[in-house]
Design goal:
about 950 residues; mainly beta; Maltoporin, Chain A; 2 domains; five-stranded mixed β-sheet; 7 helices; 51 strands; about 5% helix
Amino acid sequence: MEKSVKSKFVWICLLLGAMLMASTVLQAQPYGRVAGRVLATTGEYLIGANVFLKGTSMGATSDREGKYSIENVPAGTYTLTVGYIGYEAFSAEITVASGSTVQQEAKLKVSYLKGEEVVVRGLREGQIKALSQQRTSPGIENVVSEEQMQRFPDLNTADVLQRIPAISVVRDQGEGRYVQIRGTEARLSAVSVNGERITAPDGGERYVGMDVISATQAASIEVVKALTPDVDADAIGGSVNIITRSAFDSDKPFLHVQGGSGYSDQLGKPLWQGVFTYGTQLGAEKKIGLTVTGNYDYSKRSTWDNESTWDEAKTSTGATIPFALVDLDLRDYIVKRERWNVAGSLEFRPSANNQFFLRGMYNNRDDYEYRRRLYVRPSKGTFLDETHVSNAKVYNELKDRLERQNITSVSAGGIHNMGRLALDYTVAYSRGETKKPDETDPLFQMVKKMNITLDLTNTDTPQYKITSQGADYNQFNPGNFRVDKVKWNNDDATDKDVLGAVNLKYAYRLGSLPSELKFGGKMHMREKKKDQLRWIYEWNGSNYRMMTNFVGDTNVTIQNGAYKIGPTIDGGKFRADFKALKDNPAGYDGAIDQENTDAANFTADENIYAYYAMNTVTKGNLMALFGFRHEFTSETNKSNQVLLDVDGNYVSTTPQEAKKSYNNLMPMAHVRYRLTPMTNIRLAATTGIARPNFFDVVPYRRVLPEDEEVYEGNSTLKPTTATNLDLMAEHYFQGIGIISGGFFYKKLNNIIFTQTTKIRGGAYNGYDYFQPVNGGNSSLTGYELNWQQQLTFLPGFLSGLGLYANYTHTKSKAEVGGRLERPELPGQAADVANFAVSYEKYGFTGRFSVNYHGKFIEEVGVDAEHDRIYQEHLQMDFSASQKVYKGLAMYVEVLNLNKEPMIYYMGQKTRPIQREFYSWWMHGGVKFDM
């Protein structure tokens, strides 16, 4: 450790020791304890209730089982009060004796809905739980309950999270995939299950594709936007924690069964889904809890996609076209997705103060992609001017592959309450994997080169016309295409993490003030590995292998006839032919694609060791939390550098290894002041870290001669660090709801972006060179507004209405090398908003919702004209359910009612580089709850 870090460490240890000694001395006074449970008159546990001893600073918050405990209570008589959103206040007189525990149960009556029966699993009860947990949390967070998730038409957890203030998502095939919190890229946020980090199945990234995890797996989802020292610090944007179901969430067995079908508009194919959740307590004394959940989703949808590549080009006379349309890529996708997930927990509670658990979760997503592609390449010809090209090439390609992604998470541990001291510990294992077995992608090239004329009148749908004359130039005649090459791939990427954690809490009095000291440590041992095998096969037979033998659909069009792709390649026919003649000198003869195999393979070993200490003090309506976290990181990264000659031929592969270690000391502080029982002011000053993506730091080098590009890793990359300031005001409505507003500021150091330059001289002269590098100091500021309210104060029919609205605005500046102007941070959308109107009454629940995020830079270019930008996105959804019998309801969900596409562009909207269309899809079926 550096001298300054050692000095800080010594002072921290001395301070911690002094606090422990002082707390021991101060405990030498007569104290007792108050404990119990908060629940509704219907028996439902109430999480997040405020429990206080009137006229003192002593209080507690009920946990997910409604339990609370107030430690170090001086002997005497008190009035215990309990407050909860939507429920009448509870009070009781209690007498505390020295060395004893007073048990006081609090049963609360519903107040927001006079004269009507409480619907235990209704939207409003779920909203109450979530808001109550937010209100009493020490930090700044948002909570989504299981009941709320069921009321939105969201199948995966990414889609659920997009409804939360300040969160936007990056989509894949119409579904949310990567989560971006408060204007930060996905790498700057973290995902956990029951408080423990899960691994990322994607090949080189650190962040988790959340479309793998079904929304039905969660009892609730917490989004922490300002960290406390007791959680992993690698969450500058925020931390997502998925809480799974527990059999002890209710004193009665529970069962949820759901089954349904659906329809995809663009393809016209059925969709299927099923959900099962069961929990119960076993034994005469109900000390064992068992929970099992599972779900299955199946969809087969179509996507239309036109992609354009804009780049500098030289004409035959030497003139420069700054942004020429060098390639036009027309794609028709048929995507079949199967997602199935299982989870379970086994809990043992031998006594009220001791519990043990074993939890497991397995999430699997099979993504079968069948992509027909017509590839028009002016870049392979000669530009006469901006719209006229001679000797261009045209290709017909098929991608026929299965991508299987799964995440496994297993954890075991215990929780022990020993009066003022509480201990918990966890050991866990998480594994993410992506496999792409036996991917076979044939590429047919049109035999003749041709002259084409480009029509750029409408750059959203640029057109081309073949001006060469003769039957040999008919691109829709499969007899004019021959096999150019076949890419055959087998990819396997794994991410494994073994962790152990222990935490201790000690309740004491700092003078007369109730306080709690918490400290602990954690260890992560992580290995990220990619084994990619790529082959390129060419036809070596005596005659050309023509596309005529492999024709599938003959008249494929996309975007409502804007483009014609067909005829296309039939995957089944070609795969059978390829397998029969593969590795045959007179058939398909292949060789390993070294630059896409050796350079892509890597192993990254990362160990993180952390310890922390934090103290919470309460004085009246004021709560202060302060502490630190110290993390030590060591990594060993192995990969390859591949050398090619001047003609692009493989020469050699050289193994590379890079090692690095560093440590980060991160102080944090939170203050919460309760203006009224329903109004909080929060202030937080925190620090955090975001380590580089794994593939960015491995010492690889990859050359793509066909595209004249060189990619290289950077083993000297530093992690991004941040200092964060948050100010939040929130008021909760007793009639169920919240109105809140907050300001946040982030100062980021060593941001990471991919720098693009031109190679000058040498074997790769003129090639584009891509490498991740650190930028300088950057900043992000923003504010968020949130309003949720059930309009229960309205008369009659109107009392079923509810409104849900939030808006977040951010702005940022990123210091990147080689740019005169400072661009925005990657992933930072200036505007993110949600609006929904709901209705719940007479057994009916319905919700119409709108989700919006503004444009943001996904990749920083050499200048603003070359930035890759994700265009603004606005999507409308609808969901409804109707109770038809006790516990039985029918439901319908419709997504993307307005048929919103996904669009990327380069620099400005007149240069779109990807336009993807999905139309709408829907689900419907029945639900049963017990």
